[in-house]
Amino acid sequence: xxxxxxxxxxxxxxxxxxxxxxxxxxxxxxxxxxxxxxxxxxxxxxxxxxxxxxxxxxxxxxxxxxxxxxxxxxxxxxxxxxxxxxxxxxxxxxxxxxxxxxxxxxxxxxxxxxxxxxxxxxxxxxxxxxxxxxxxxxxxxxxxxxxxxxxxxxxxxxxxxxxxxxxxxxxxxxxxxxxxxxxxxxxxxxxxxxxxxxxxxxxxxxxxxxxxxxxxxxxxxxxxxxxxxxxxxxxxxxxx
Length: 240
Prior knowledge:
- With 240 residues, the protein is α+β, with helices and mostly antiparallel strands.
- The chain has a single domain, classed as 2,3-Dihydroxybiphenyl 1,2-Dioxygenase, domain 1.
- 20% of the residues lie in helices and 32% in strands.
- It contains four helices and 16 strands.
- It has helices spanning 15-26, 73-85, 138-148, 199-209, and strands at residues 4-12, 29-33, 36-40, 48-53, 64-68, 89-90, 102-105, 111-114, 128-134, 152-156, 159-162, 171-175, 187-192, 212-213, 224-227, 233-236.
- An eight-stranded mixed beta sheet has the order 2-3-4-1-13-16-15-14, covered by helices on one side.
- A hairpin with a 5-residue loop joins strand 7 and strand 8.
- The longest helix is centred in the N-terminal third of the chain and has 13 residues, at 73-85.
- The chain is globular.
- The two termini are 13 Å apart.
- The model has no long low-confidence stretch (mean pLDDT 96).
């Protein structure tokens, strides 16, 4: 049985505004679904982005961020200009003056990078090239490799990367440093079993891999909130 990454979820103080920003940057389509706003890809990406309302403002650096791909320096500059025109801004997180990538923040302060061309662990099928996660060590990459059934494509110097078994689509990378966790992450993954799958069996499998159940005040819901071995929340949805 294989779990599927269905959604990259953002906590947002203003989901509509943040959705407009990311839809404009990525050229994805927006769809309102109850309280959340969902961005649906137009470039073949296999997961959605969901923006859900929360009252708490962002504090500290996110543990998860997205990297945008560039096919040339001109394309990189154009993406940076478009992001800034839509409400993003340049930020300094210690990348240094010689960094070839550009670090930006969206209108709610979520960090993301616009990478230089020919970066190794980036998919060039669309602008959203990879999801990058800070990690405590290679074990967190091993966990997610087993959880999703995605093979390791890099395992060196404490950093790991995984990609879908067919070798296409976005990479998910894991590596140090891991910032202190003071509250629930602003970004998290939603994953789901296939239509003929068993949600509870998958939850138990994930627990055997090192995950834990987590109560974040979700109440009675159809999904199961969990945390990975680095204490990053994620949700296991019903089969779909």
